[in-house]
Amino acid sequence: MPAVVFYFQVHQPFRLRHYTFFDIGENHFYEDDRKNREILRKVAHKCYLPMNALLTDLIRQHAGAFHVAFSLSGVALDQFERYAPEVLESFQCLARTGGVEFLSETEFHSLAFLFSEREFREQVELHNRRIKTLFGQTPTVFRNTELIYNNALAQVIESMGFKAILAEGADHVLGWRSPNFLYLPKTGNRLRLLLKNYRLSDDIAFRFSNRAWNEFPLTAEKYAAWIHALNGNGEIINLFMDYETFGEHQWAETGIFDFMRALPTAILRHPDFRFSTPSKAAEHYSPVARLDVPLFVSWADIERDLTAWLGNEMQKDAIESLYRLETDVRRCNRPELLRVWRQLQTSDHFYYMCTKWFADGDVHKYFNPYGSPYDAYINYMNVLADFERTVREALAAPPPPPSPPASPSARRSRKQTAPARSTPGIPKVTAHAPPDPMPKNNRPKTTKKKSPPPKTSHVKNKAKRSPSTPKKKHPAPSRRTNPR
Amino acid sequence: MRVLMFGWEFPPHISGGLGTACYGLTRALARRGHQLIFVIPRTRSDEPAQHLRLISASGTPVPLSLTRATAHAARALWEKRFSLRILDAALFPYASPPIPSARFHGQTPSEDSIKVRAFEQESQSIVTLLESEGDYGANLMAEVYRYSQAAGALALRESFDVIHAHDWMAFPAGLLARAVSRRPLILHVHSLEYDRSGDHPNPEILEIERAGLEAADAVIAVSHYTRQMIITRYGIAPEKIHVVHNAVSREEAPRLYRVQRRSEEKIVLFMGRITFQKGPDYFVEAAGLVLPRLPHVRFVMAGSGDMLPRIIQRAAQLRIGSRFHFTGFLKGPAVERMYALSDLYVMPSVSEPFGIAPLEAMLFDVPVLLSRQSGVSEVLRNALTVDFWDVREIANKIIAVLQHPPLANEIVRHCREELRAIRWDNAAEAIASVYQTVLKRKGA
After folding, report:
1. What number is the ipTM of this complex?
2. Cα separation of B271 and B346, whole Å?
3. pLDDT for A426 beyond 80
4. Which end of chain B is less crowded, N or C, counting CB atoms within 10 A of the terminal residue's CB?
5. What total number of domains does chain B contain?
6. Is the pLDDT of residue A448 over 50?
7. In this complex, do A317 and B406 lie within 8 Å of one another by their Cβ atoms?
């Protein structure tokens, strides 16, 4: 009885506004409020709302036989609350169907695990609590930002009590093995490891509308036949992808919604197949082997490593400068400063500084609000300089007064309200809206613009370069066997 | 292919990028086996011109008959096409005694061009053509006129397949050469009057540019930026305008000076003519924003031009004179040394058809900050770019480069790779295909 496991990643970064050297010390508004709102509302209407409605229908229609999982970044949730509360409600509506599992991740879609275990754990806890509050379930499965994974992460995650963790089924990790089974991390006995089947995932996420693909057009029947061909060769087929695939990366005109509407029925037509969620699959199946992953893997680019965020000097300088502030930020004991610092951790900020492929103007560029990686770095470093100043001032200032709760509306009108809200003893910082004032930036996954046809590109995720590469690797379904 | 080329500058006597570009592309053309005759207003003895025949318009002995023949054509061209009458043009001011041994090379062009043949028999007397300084002085228009006359005469004397003229000073020469030879004419636009003078162009120059571009068999623009301007400002048919980006010659940048950058003090460089087109005023304003905020930085303005006094005054007014320096016009090794000492090269041009200097700076591993209103930004993806008028953003980026070594390092690393693809050989290949195109059309 093989199970198909869908997991959708929902993330929208807080993009930073154009922030120059001359803004440093002058104002503390980092967010591009307008752009974030525009992008979020656009994606809400093209993807989140229609796809949530579709999934709700499907779950009801298949009465218990269709399940999906979501991971919603905290920064995306922030933006739903701020710009499109109806999206949050529609996710809650989905949650009430009982067919949806919510996964855990770092609240700020950060790379914290690479730099500070303490910070990492805190962000995960924050996110768990938030998911519990919003959706009434406590996540038991963890997925790290961009599916970044290694042995050490698995250890920490197991120690935090999770039942399973997701990772990329990268070729260099699997070797001859198949992603279509449950694995154990190198150490520990409780945590299960689920690996993304990137070929089948990318067929939907990247290649669906690619007219140059020899399998175009992809129908639910054809796809279901590929899945069914794995019968006897696999137990879990993990289809992990950006949620924005539906309606945003692949436009509605490509037929992606119709495809998804038909897919559950097509897959369930084979009596051996069913849908599951990561936690149920982890419980139900037995791990077949331990997988040793000493080096980090991720789902980004063809390299499937960290170079999309930490591949050049600018990226390293920026992120190291940020995490160097941790001690001081914590010493300030000011929640609003801690929050700004965390928002600056969102991985997209560093992704924008990536120079890989830059000259080719490919996917990275597509998701980049900046004209060049250099501009992204300059902007981020200016913001960071201002933030660092603010932290220094706070450290030099008298002990903090209790932090005022921030009203969302106040946050919104940053410019006007800002000065007003400063509390007496604390000058600059207050200018940031208290709780989640600042920006994070980021990746516009959203905007994937046009091209209805093949939008291969997907955001950061996976093969960013995917169009061509994975395609070539994609074997005919029948050949997709897996040994083991 | 035999090419008769007209240009106003040739190294080492140059005032800007035009001469450098002509040198680079003629060498690459010669490497591809093309034979080039390059006519400049006046040669000195020190041009490094082994790869082509460099002819001085000034002082070249030419049979009197030819100069008379072309004199008519020149008059006709200038008065009819350009509506310009050059008053001070003494036609044969420096007639010299006949030189018996002088003889023509090449064939006489087609019969119907001017009444050449009639004159041909007439005289063995040889004159030295028109003295010309080849500068950009007050009598520029008269110089251009004399140069065109010489061109006409030389076109009768030499044999070639195509005519290739660089910028407006050589456009009349090209037109006249075509009139007497009936060979196809390619005009190469390195800059336009609108680039140089903005909204206050010299109407006579505009007229020459317009007439030349209209009449040319093909036009080569150094960037898409320039091509677009030729289309919109001059109304030239887009299909005859080809874009060939400039390049840079590696050999001109020995890396001797690489190590000289001083770590304790950063240098921000402007190198170019100090004229409206190059945006020196934006550079000094940006310096005015940067210097009060960053210690240990110096700004250097290398070059000369009509705006120099104004810039000096402005620097003084901003009270940044102690850290804003003027070097005057630099040549040869001084240029290289200047690049090598710099931590950032800024080109805030108001309108820059191409801009080779940033490429030269990159050869010395100097990061560059370019105006978006430049052709070179079309070929450099790893340069920082900015709108020339956005002084705060210029300052913002200058500060970023000076403050964050990882930024400069990444830019330099990627620019080095990028530079490898920017080669005169590629430009020469593209130019050769333009030659083929016009010849085919002519032949057809």
Report:
1. 0.78
2. 8
3. no
4. C
5. 2
6. no
7. yes
